Amino acid sequence: MKAIIVDDEKHVREGLMLLADWSRFGIDTIMEAVDGNEAIKLIQEHRPEIIFTDMSMPKRDGISLLKWIHSSDLPSKTIVVSGYDDFDYMRNAICYKSFDYILKPIDPDILNETLEKAVNEWNQQSSPGESQQEHNVEMNVIQQIEQFLLENYNKDINLQEIADRFYLSREYISRKFKQEYQATITDFITNIRMNRAKELLLNPKLRIYEIAFQVGYQDEKYFSKVFKKTEGISPNEYRSTNLQ
């Protein structure tokens, strides 16, 4: 986790660096900026989760920085640190969704209590988003595997080949695929093959061994056995029933 301290006074930046218990809250990178312009460059590049900012600074002040952060729709938690108990400053801090407003001189207990709350809130808000993103990635991979099977069902496909192709473990693919489709990959392929076989059986010109070969079986007898097991009747019986 990253944080940035924006203040034109060096002793204030150093004070915050010393007083905050950064490591306890999982913050391992702390940056410094002397004004809003420098802060924006660092924020754009590093996207820190926590932003401490003064309000009264040269070039670009805290109000302008808060406005930019708010308009940029950044998920960062912004904590204002000001030497002024000023209504206008506080109003702008509230308006631009600042997490809290701390007065100088800085009280270490208040600082760390505020920082802890900000970090906890950031974690709570980001976790669902990360989980959803992870789920989306997983679903995308599973859908790619499904498409691969639909395009290659008539080939001799095994789980190891799929694992190698998609750079995933066989166990992971099996588990995720079954969760999504309520079927093993073997059953899924068999289902595709049987559906295609039923379509081909409606063509009286095709022999059973030709259909077996087209849907991925080298052995006509084995094909007929699998067909009967899944459909309840033999390929010839299916053909006779549906071509009457």
UniProtKB/TrEMBL annotation:
Name of this chain's protein: AraC family transcriptional regulator
Its localization reads:
Cytoplasm
The alphabetical list of record keywords is:
Cytoplasm, DNA-binding, Phosphoprotein, Transcription, Transcription regulation, Two-component regulatory system
* SUPFAM superfamilies for this protein: CheY-like, Homeodomain-like
Organism equals: Sporosarcina globispora
Residue ranges of domain HTH araC/xylS-type in the record: 143-241
| Major localization class | cytoplasm
Residues in a coiled coil are: none
Report the residues modified as 4-aspartylphosphate: D54
- GO CC term, one of those recorded: cytoplasm
Specify the superkingdom: Bacteria
Gene Ontology molecular function:
DNA-binding transcription factor activity; sequence-specific DNA binding
Which InterPro entries does this one have? CheY-like_superfamily (IPR011006), Homeodomain-like_sf (IPR009057), HptR (IPR051552), HTH_AraC (IPR018060), HTH_AraC-typ_CS (IPR018062), Sig_transdc_resp-reg_receiver (IPR001789), Tscrpt_reg_AraC-type_HTH (IPR020449)
A Gene Ontology biological process noted in the UniProt record is: phosphorelay signal transduction system
User: Which parts of the sequence belong to the Response regulatory domain?
Assistant: 2-119
By its UniProt entry, which Pfam families does this protein fall under? HTH_18 (PF12833), Response_reg (PF00072)
